[in-house]
Amino acid sequence: METMLEEHDTQSLSMGRKTPLRGGRPPRVSIGIPVYNGERYISDTIDSIQAQTFRDFELIISDNASTDGTAAICRRYAASDARIRYFRNERNVGAAKNFNRLVVCARGEYFKWAASDNLIEPTFLERCVELLDARPDAVVAYTRCKQINEFDGTIRTIDTDRDLESADVFDRLRSLFLQVIGMQDTIWGLVRAGVLQKTRLIRSFVGADDCLLIELILQGPWVEVPEHLLVLRIHPGGYHAIDREGAWWKQGEVHFKDFMHIRVEGVKQARWYDPENTASIYFPYWRRLREYSMLIMRSGHHLKTKLRMMWFLCHLVSWRRIMLAAEIWNGFRYIFHTEQVTKFHGG
Q: What is the pLDDT of residues 50-81, one digit of tens each?
């Protein structure tokens, strides 16, 4: 049976109660922080949210059974700010479920996930809300970003020009693959909650966040605030530091003769999404391709448009052929070099 979220209350200021509704209406924006053992950075994250010039928001924190000082920090913030609701899981349910429960708890017109180690500049919400209010057809508003290290030192600013506002869904999808997938910044944008709630959210396999981005780009245009208002922290404890030594994308140009030595995403990443996943072999890129295809074919777009998008996926297979070959090779290598019973899983 799945463990439910528990709310922690104090006497007069709650940690998990319903925020008093101003004028009988919910807040316009819901921000959700999924966290596990985030004591080092979560105070800075919450401070950056409380410093927003746009004030009509609620902050929901879902603590995935942290074993460090995260709970005490979050309770302290919830006790001092009625906009903050704090929830704690009795056990670690995995990142996917922890992310998704924040969407279920949200009451705002717009929703944003906020990583427990990232920051947003004071005008992030104000500028994104302005764009979504002005563009009823837009699904997501996002900003440019910069990366910092564990000591707050700037690593780089990201100024990629993206074309995600097109009315043509094929153009948007192509731009998403060429300019966004793998960048890990737009997932932290501001989304129309009604649209997000109709998606499959974050599922329990490696690359599920990319699949969510595909679902959202199929729904409508995304609009960009051309300012660096999102701050991504790159540090040894982050997800993208998991088992990255010798990873294929750090090896520079890779040829077919090298694919036998490529390390692929696998067990550690999958356990992050779902700690109960006990598979031994993973094919995350093959799983992504399958999911991309299903999302496109199940969308409500015209058949001709779907076929154009599927043709583009064929080109993607060609571009990712080394990675796809590496996954198959790693699978066979595991089978022939172990005596234990092997379990297969797509991601």
A: 999 999 999 999 999 999 999 999 999 999 99
Tokens 């074993």 correspond to what residue? 67
Pick the CATH number of 5-233 from 3.40.50.2030, 3.90.550.10, 3.40.920.10, 3.40.630.10: 3.90.550.10
For the segment 13-26, the average pLDDT, to the nearest whole number, is 50
Question: Rounded to an integer, what distance in angstroms lies between the CA atom of residue 192 and that of residue 195?
Answer: 5
H helical segments located in 81-232: 95-105, 124-134, 169-179, 193-196, 208-219
Proportion of the chain in helix, strand, coil states, percent, rounded to 5: 40, 20, 40
Please give the Cα distance from 205 to 277 (Å, whole number).
9
Helix (H, G, I), strand (E, B) or coil at 324: helix
**What would the pLDDT profile of 167-224 be if each residue is shown by its tens digit?**
999 999 999 998 877 667 899 999 999 999 999 999 998 889 999 999 999 999 999 9
Query: Which DSSP string corresponds to 281-303?
Result: EE-HHHHHHHHHHHHHHHSSS-H
